[in-house]
Design goal:
about 500 residues; alpha/beta; two-stranded antiparallel sheet; 20 helices
């Protein structure tokens, strides 16, 4: 993230002081009510109205989405905070070592940063019930020699995250293979390491399987060589202490969330490979233009006219979002033809996201709002493509990408330049310096490309329809002229025959 401004530091200090004051109030009240009994950590959290967790901005933890904060750790942590009836506060730390060290600071409640349970860490902190199993995977670059065992890693250029469970595992392996060597870096995310494998910067790395799942489509040359460690468990890290009140509440929450399917729901939301919204093949799309689009075409045109937009562009957006399925629903809970979030729907005045008319109206209105935020001196079609990217990833992230583009000598007003740099929002070296932090920057690039493709097909289809209608009109006109000629010929022939007959009669 960008360097924290003075206001942010003051805000953090204010929260710490407020929490301390609240704690003192609770202590005072407790003293009155229960003699000298010290309030439990859970009571302090409830009294303060805040759950303070330590985390690291990134793809497997938390990041700013287009409708607010997102990410597996954020979603799971917020569900726990909601259960307690308090606000979730994320305290960002850049280094894993700092997260583990600060867990023992009383002002923080626990660490939530895709932390693997290891023997070394268990001496320092107390881990919760694990919420996910992952494997540690050795990566290599496709086309290069594939390693099969740790022995094959000797003499290779290996880079891992400093103080990570991967580094810990390598230290363990070094006892068996003394010549094994590697480098560690603090300011990298696992997705950065996958990118380095893809571009050949390093020979090998070790990442968790969930992180590879998130990034493998973006970096196709990065391949899994083998699992260097069996199943590894991810959990929250708590301070080792006698007061187990908050820890026990977290244990109950995680166990219950496993049983009721919530954790699986969150896993599917962030790590599922199935993405039906991106599978519209040309033949399927062509079929749906005939079978589904006619139901919504007039509504699309009416709303496009209301907001001064191209109806085919709105149609292309709605197809990308829902495949023109009015009852569509994604794992993230967005619904309807335009797949609006609850927040966006409320902002746009939509009371029923499954109502096709409300959904299209809300989606068109929201796109127009974003479109109007794009600087007016940016010319078409770049303005539309940039607006689409912001519609997908969020306006703040788009602005971050435009600044990165400009910093690299590109034109921040040209989509072709900006789309080259949007994926950098997923790389720690870049997003830690931006205002809005991590984003899945490759997604808006695919999103805009898909919509452009759908838009072009729709425009082509409309032209074909117009040509067919014109051809049909011409055929009808020609036919009418032809039939009119026949009638004139028949009239002439009849008249001639009558005249001829009359002549014959007269002659007789």
């Amino acid at each position: 993230m960008a360097d924290k401004p003075l206001n942010s530091r003051l805000h953090a200090i204010f929260h710490q002081v407020s929490r301390l004051v609240m704690a003192l109030v609770v202590l005072a009240c407790s003293a009155l009510l229960a003699g000298s009994r010290t309030p439990t950590e859970l009571e302090l959290v409830l009294a303060a109205g805040e759950l303070n967790i330590l985390s690291r901005n990134g793809s497997t933890t938390y990041y700013e989405g287009k409708s607010g904060l997102a990410g597996f750790e954020y979603t799971l942590g917020k569900a726990f905070a909601d259960r307690l009836g308090v606000k979730l506060v994320i305290n960002e730390e850049e280094k894993l070592a700092d997260i583990l060290n600060k867990v023992n600071d009383p002002q923080y409640n626990f660490g939530a940063s895709a932390l693997t349970i290891t023997a070394e860490r268990s001496e320092q902190v107390m881990f919760s019930e694990p919420y996910m199993d992952v494997s540690q995977q050795v990566l290599y670059r496709r086309g290069e020699s594939r390693p099969k065992t740790p022995v094959d890693l000797i003499g290779k250029k290996i880079l891992v995250i400093a103080n990570s469970s991967h580094a810990e595992h390598l230290r363990s392996l070094k006892k068996r293979f003394p010549t094994l060597s590697w480098e560690e870096a603090e300011e990298v995310e696992m997705i950065d390491l996958v990118a380095m494998i893809d571009n050949g910067t390093i020979d090998h790395t070790i990442v968790d399987s969930n992180a590879f799942t998130v990034s493998r489509n973006l970096f196709p040359k990065a391949q899994v060589a083998f699992d260097i460690a069996g199943s590894q468990k991810l959990a929250w890290a708590f301070q080792k202490q006698k007061d187990m009140s908050l820890y026990k509440a977290a244990q109950e929450f995680i166990l219950e969330s496993k049983e009721n399917g919530k954790i699986q729901e969150f896993t599917d939301q962030y790590y599922s490979l199935a993405d039906d919204m991106n599978k519209g093949g040309a033949l399927v799309f062509a079929h749906r233009i005939e079978s589904r689009l006619p139901k919504w075409q007039e509504i699309l045109k009416e709303n496009a006219e209301e907001f001064d937009l191209d109806w085919q562009l709105i149609a292309a957006i709605s197809y990308q979002e829902s495949h023109w399925n009015a009852r569509a629903r994604s794992p993230t809970g967005v619904r309807g033809l335009m797949m609006l979030t609850l927040t966006t729907a409320k902002e746009m005045g939509v009371t029923n996201r499954l109502d096709p008319e409300q959904s299209i109206h809300g989606g068109a209105k929201y796109f127009r709002k974003i479109y109007d935020r794009i600087p007016k001196d940016i010319l078409e079609p770049d303005r539309a493509w940039l607006a689409l990217a912001a519609y997908n990833v969020g306006y703040g992230h788009l602005e971050d990408a435009r600044k990165i583009t400009q910093g690299h000598g590109g034109d921040p007003d040209k989509w072709d330049d900006v789309k080259t740099h949007l994926p950098k929002l997923a790389k720690r070296a870049y997003y830690r310096k931006t205002k809005h932090g991590y984003a899945r920057g490759w997604e808006p690039v695919s999103y805009v490309q898909n919509i452009r493709s759908y838009y072009n097909v729709l425009a082509w289809h409309e032209q074909m329809n117009m040509r067919q209608l014109a051809a049909a009109d011409k055929a009808a006109t020609d036919s009418a002229n032809y039939n009119g000629g026949d009638e004139q010929l028949k009239t002439t022939q009849t008249s001639t025959m009558e005249n001829h007959t009359d002549g014959q009669t007269t002659s007789l």
